[in-house]
Write a structure and sequence with these properties.
Chain B: One of its GO terms (molecular function) is branched-chain amino acid transmembrane transporter activity. The complex is a heterotrimer of chains A (411), B (357) and C (282). Chain A has 15 helices and 15 strands. Chain A is α/β, with parallel strands linked by helices. The chains are: A alpha/beta (411), B mainly alpha (357), C mainly alpha (282).
Chain lengths: 411, 357, 282
Amino acid sequence: MPTDECSRPSTTVSAPNTTSRRAFVSAAGAGATLGLAGCLGGDEDDTIKVGFVFATSGPYSLLGESHINGFQLRIDEELGGELDGREVEYVQRDTGGDPETGVTIAEEFIQSEDVDFLVGPVSGAVAFAMEPIVGQYEDEVVWLSTNSANNDLSYARGEYQTRNMFLGYQAWQLAAATGEWVYDNLGETAALSYADYAAGIEYTEDFQDGYEEAGGEVLGDVAMPLGEDDYSPYLSTIEDTDAEVVWSFFAGADAVNYIRDFHEFGLDEEMTQAGAAFLLSADTLEAQGEAAEGKYSSSIYTLDYESETNDEFKSSYESAYDTDPNIYAVLSYDGAQMMETAVEETGGVNPPELIEAMEGMELDSPRGPFEMDPDLHVPVHDVHMREVQMDDDGEPYNEVVDTIESVRPPW
Amino acid sequence: MSEKSIPTDRAATKSDGVLGKRGKYGLLTLGILAVIIGPIVDVIDPFWFRLLVNVLVFALFAASLDLVFGYTGLPSFGHAAMFGAGGYAAALLLLNGFASALVVLPIAILVTIFISVIIGWISARTKDLYFSFITLAFAQILFIAAFIDLPARILSPDRITRGDDGLVGVPAYDLGVTLTDPMYYYFFTLVVVAAGVYTIIAVANSPFGRVLRGIHENEERMRAIGYNVTNYKVLAFTISGALTGLAGALYVPHSSVAHPNLFHWLVSGELVIIVLVGGMGSIWGPMVAAGLFVYLEHVLSAFANWLLILGLIYVVFVIFVPDGLSELLKRAVRNPRDVPNNAKRSIKSYINSVRYR
Amino acid sequence: MSVQATLLGLQIAMAYFLIVAGLVIIYGMMDVINVAHGSLYMLGAYIGLTLYDVVGNFFVILVVAPLLVGIIAAGLETLTIRPLYGRHPLYHILLTLGLALIIEEVVKIVWGVDTHRIPTPEVLSGQIVVGSVNFPRYRLFVIGISLLVAVAMYLVFTRTKFGIIMRASSSDAEMVDALGMDVSKVYTAVFVAGSMLAAFAGVLMGVTNAVTPTMGIDIIIIAFAILVIGGAGSLLGVVISSLIVGMLVAYVSLFAPAMSELIIYLLMAAVLIVKPSGLLGE
């Protein structure tokens, strides 16, 4: 029944068929604003519609903006806003990082806007909340969850799974997979410090698993409230463990404050600081300044990673937005590349076909080449181990000191 | 709370309590309109139809808050506590095999009554700003408890509130038929919300409600006459809290998520704004404002920097529409021709007020 | 007792005090619940950041940024708060929440959403030995300068004509009138002074805390909690409650990190149960 194509999937309300619904609406002159245009013919559309479900206000706004920039850089700047001869259109709403809002927006984009692709969100909590809802529309939309890092969201794992969801990366890849490297290179005993929320807990547990498996010993851990301004009161607990390494999960302003406090209280001189990407990344380094020097992090993207693709990407991003790209921009840039390749390959926007095309897809990304795992719907990519060094102007940057190749979660 | 400047339609209050006969008919008309409009909106756009459920839920929330806030004069900044408690209670039951609305809703209400009595009983000793902040403190305590999954940390290593991931995939109620169909859920919500609003109006217009009004106008006098003011306040807070919990229990299965944000002070704050914009103490004004807010915020959120627009709306509104929507609409209905004059007058008085003498 | 935790508690307390000091004079004298206070704190940090790029001297911006925020505050007060005099204090919440949203969004448009930090001034970087522990020099500076501000505020209120008029306006606006003063000018002055304190705190804390568009909204509820615990309107009460909260946060962070945020709200509830108008409220 064609009705299902553009309204909710499984309702029993008898409704007039699609065309007459549309006729009614356009007669009322409301068609344009309500965005029902996509309903008419599925594959014969002459536009491809993308819905951005990102936070553009609140603490996640930098991430949301970067994602949207990265995506539009590929489609609008580099491809002239067209894919396979069709114009790409966007709709966008601010989730504010709130799961209920995220669900509402996802429903609107699918039901009313008839988007072909959902891109977002930033927050794992929002992705979790959207998952059962978007999961009901597997034949209508492809979901590029270009940021969310929760392990449980990968297809074929855990209780949440939607086949039409493709993820940017996994907590496991940045944490557990680096445990052995940290043990071999930085120290045999570690303390853990992290922001006390779902992502912080997951990353830290993953790291602990990987580190202990490699033979390392964890001597203590401190969970600190998310959004804390002042980390100094917690530092003595870390110091008292006498561990060689401190492994941490903080992001954004938290990462800036934590690293600066760590440095200010002289803990640098006693232990080596390491952590997941966000602790020391392009969006935090400027504010962290010299406090970041000599600290390690794992990431899938490094601004100074040397490759032709990355150089081109960087100059293209800079000329479009007048600023350096960050990991979030890359993730959605790659999401756009996946969409581009899949649309060209299948010659349409039929979600089951697109999903099939994306499974096992190989991409040349600014982060380095990677493959989309056909079972997990997660990229199998290299993890860079970086150390922060100071350039000639005294500005910190990440130097890739080692690469863990083709990291795939073990489930 | 000084009474000097609280806008009240005292003459009307004295004669027929909250909502005169006309107001009641007005509300009834709105209800009937909701019955007709729902299916029509659904045909036009199923998503905008789904938002109508949010409108109903927040209308009930706003009316409940207004009963204590505008009507009794207790400026609660912590009503999110009850909204979240009702929502979480419903989510936990629905996710654990209890599907019947006849079981889940009463339990959710009982849970919020329990919480409201505690918060109300402790908070009723304080006044004004202090009342606002002690209620806010309780809501923030619940927010943090849900956010770090304090119940699980205390009771067992398992997850209970699931921290900031929240409880997701909350199924709809069952009522003989399952209410997964948005049309069913809409009418179910409409009936429950109508019953809730009816309760609020009945309470406001009862002898008990007149005592609450008396407390608002002059607490000392009521005490002198011999009323146990504190008990009245606690009871009013509990009734309001229970209905707020009911709104939460309707909201969560609809959005399918129970997240700590339900408890957040920004939720309480937004509802306070809705009550102020709608017109304190009128009950219907805040309900209308709730509907406007649900749609306005959704429409605005498509724009970059949309909070700027929202902020401007707050500022302009509070300066130029001091008594809230309810008074504005009343005046406009009573004397439609005066509308341009009134507008001119308020602009003039604004200009006068910003000038130095 | 840990020397380090005690020093930290003191430093956290003094940082809170600087933020709340502005709130307390605005609420105490004008009866305005200023939700936008956190946003002026943030604005101070951002203006300081930009000035720093121009001037390059921390101590200059510590003085100039508050002055610029003071000018903005004068405009806000005149155009938006003044028309609301005599209205119920609840309406100020609606108004100032609107102002807070506007300021935050304007900051995002002007400065973007990146995270920044004001560099630690050279003379105040590094650590010095205090008793048995090393303590960052800059944080000792924060303690010192905040104490100075507290003393200065006390002197202004009790010893100067300006302070006397300000206090008179809170207890009896008519008396100010009788003195031949324009109450609305006094109110503007109070609001400007409070906002300058917020901006001063913003610059000072922009060195130890990340400067982001959300730093204002993040701090405002805790600031109000401290105000209420101390007894709104009481300067001494706020000093005491800042100290209690600062110490509590420092020690709880050490022994039960998960509780360090919760403890502030528990304390507020506990204080209001025992003393419904705050520690030194009337």
